[in-house]
Amino acid sequence: MTTLDQAFHDAILRRNFDPFLHRSIMTLNPGTPYLPNWHLSAIAYQLERIRRGEIKRLIINMPPRHLKSQTVSVAFPAYLLGLEPWHRIFCISYGGELSSKHHNDFRSIVASRWYRRAFPDMLVSRSLEDEVTTSATGFRRSTSVYGTLTGLGGNIFIIDDPQKPVDAQSEVQRDQLNQWVSNTLMSRLDSKETGIIILVMQRVHLNDLSGYLMETGGWDTHPSGHRARSTHAREASAMKALPTIVAGPPWRWRFVAVFILRTSYCIPESACGACSGSDNFPDRCRNFPVTRLKIPCLASTGNFVLIH
């Protein structure tokens, strides 16, 4: 590769998150072919909107083993700090072992030769087991749910799989997590007006953290399906997805994008409670083309349908 080609390649990595994600996945999974899919481009599109300041709150609900953690908790912080190394990023998961795994993957990316060449202004001043600090005083800090946050604050919080599926079946543990996020975590944002919160998780209960946050306050639901594709044709064609964009009350959950993924993944009907079978949908679910999906369990939250 010539010097000009190399410079062009590095510029592409800096300009758009999608090719950066491709390169990061290849670094984290050597010897495994990268299989691009529309859902990765859809997530990358919404994360780009986060970076540009178009949205401040993002919820991504996906089944396991769809690269959501490597995309959101690993590659995206590396991309943000590469462009703007002053960001203060917290990445939070249900357990310390999972948080450490994501943090080690992050360190592998920022220590790679291609990353240092593409982002020369991102200089690591300190690298610890749970934190990487930049020369511009930014950082990515890894912690677990209920971890110590006293005296700490940041402008970006990424919550990745905050609860085990088995724990989500306990009402006590669900409420404990929901209150911790609402009361403790929210208070650690440097600015509630401009701070960013991203939640990525699999749906494990109708009243899990995703359901709780989306039901907080009054919500306006923009159209999904064909109306969304015609109304937001440019975004839909770029994403090849059918997102539902939800706007929340002032400062708290002002902008949230919820992905409705067409997948056969589901949670037990006993945990859903919205319907008793694939042929018995509530009337409020009728506005979604469920007959084509053949999904045995639906849950309705507010005015839009969540597909588990």
How does this structure look, described?
This protein has eleven helices and twelve strands. The chain has one domain: Rossmann fold (3-Layer(aba) Sandwich). The protein has 308 residues and is α/β, with parallel strands linked by helices. The protein has helices at 3-15, 17-28, 38-52, 68-83, 96-110, 113-118, 171-185, 209-215, 225-231, 233-239, 269-272, and strands at residues 57-61, 88-93, 124-127, 131-134, 139-144, 156-160, 196-201, 220-221, 243-247, 255-259, 298-301, 304-307. A ten-stranded mixed beta sheet has the order 3-4-5-2-6-7-1-10-9-8, with helices on one face. The termini are far apart. Strand 9 and strand 10 (255-259) form a beta hairpin.
What can be said about this structure in brief?
The chain is an alpha/beta fold. The chain has 11 helices and 12 strands. Helix 1 crosses helix 2, helix 2 crosses helix 4 and helix 4 (68-83) packs across helix 5.
Spell out the blueprint of helices and strands.
Blueprint lengths: L2 H13 L1 H12 L9 H15 L4 E5 L6 H16 L4 E6 L2 H15 L2 H6 L5 E4 L3 E4 L4 E6 L11 E5 L10 H15 L10 E6 L7 H7 L4 E2 L3 H7 L1 H7 L3 E5 L7 E5 L9 H4 L25 E4 L2 E4 L1
Parallel strand pairs: 1-7, 1-10, 2-5, 2-6, 6-7
Antiparallel strand pairs: 3-4, 4-5, 8-9, 9-10, 11-12
Helix pairs in contact: 1-2, 2-4, 3-4, 4-5, 9-10
